[in-house]
Design a protein that fits this description.
This protein is mainly alpha-helical and 176 residues long. Helices cover 48% and strands 5% of the residues. It has 7 helices and 2 strands, in the order H-H-H-H-H-E-E-H-H. The relative contact order is 0.14.
């Protein structure tokens, strides 16, 4: 029962279609926010060449080309006659991955940068709560359920606009 409870609490058991990448490939992918950004932008059928990707990402052409090279090397993007596409592979890393910390930091830095532009469709929420352990477990379950329920919506969506999701729910400790 405890084993099933732990599995239920893990995000990776709720995400399908995971790519089987080596630890060095995962580390290289998460070494720069740019790689993830370009990877997701390639899902948009209107963004197929480096110049359009540079405009959409606000990265230099050189940065875009570097990310495309990394993505191609690890099998997440391919080029046919100068037209780039993302492959079908998806990445999800679990708690045991050494790249997880870098991925979370990159995502939070991107969230902080988005505050400079504050689009009306953006949602930013930060809060500190004081609850009992039973309520904390209910909140954790709700957040995990939301992540799981997003998966089929994301899979069926047209790739037009790039968003990021960052969810944190952790116990505050003194000095943290």
């Amino acid at each position: 029962l405890e084993k099933e409870r732990k599995k239920f609490r893990q995000i990776e058991s709720r995400v399908k279609g995971k790519a089987d990448l080596s630890a060095p490939q995962i580390s290289e992918y998460y070494s720069s926010w740019n790689h993830l950004l370009i990877h997701v932008l390639l899902l948009n059928p209107k963004l197929r060449n480096p110049l359009d990707l540079a405009r959409a990402s606000r990265l230099s052409l050189e940065e875009v080309r570097l990310s495309l090279s990394v993505l191609e090397k690890i099998g997440l993007a391919k080029s046919t006659k100068g037209e780039w596409k993302a492959t079908e592979l998806r990445i999800h890393i679990g708690k045991e991955s050494t790249a997880l910390r870098m991925h979370h930091m990159n995502t939070r830095v991107a969230a902080m940068r988005s505050l400079d532009f504050m689009d009306s469709s953006d949602l930013h929420y930060s809060g500190a709560l004081s609850v009992d352990l039973e309520c904390a477990e209910k909140i954790r379950s709700l957040l995990l359920e939301a992540i799981e329920r997003m998966e089929p919506i994301i899979r069926s969506a047209q790739d037009e606009v790039l968003y990021t999701v960052a969810v944190d729910f952790f116990r505050l400790r003194s000095g943290a």
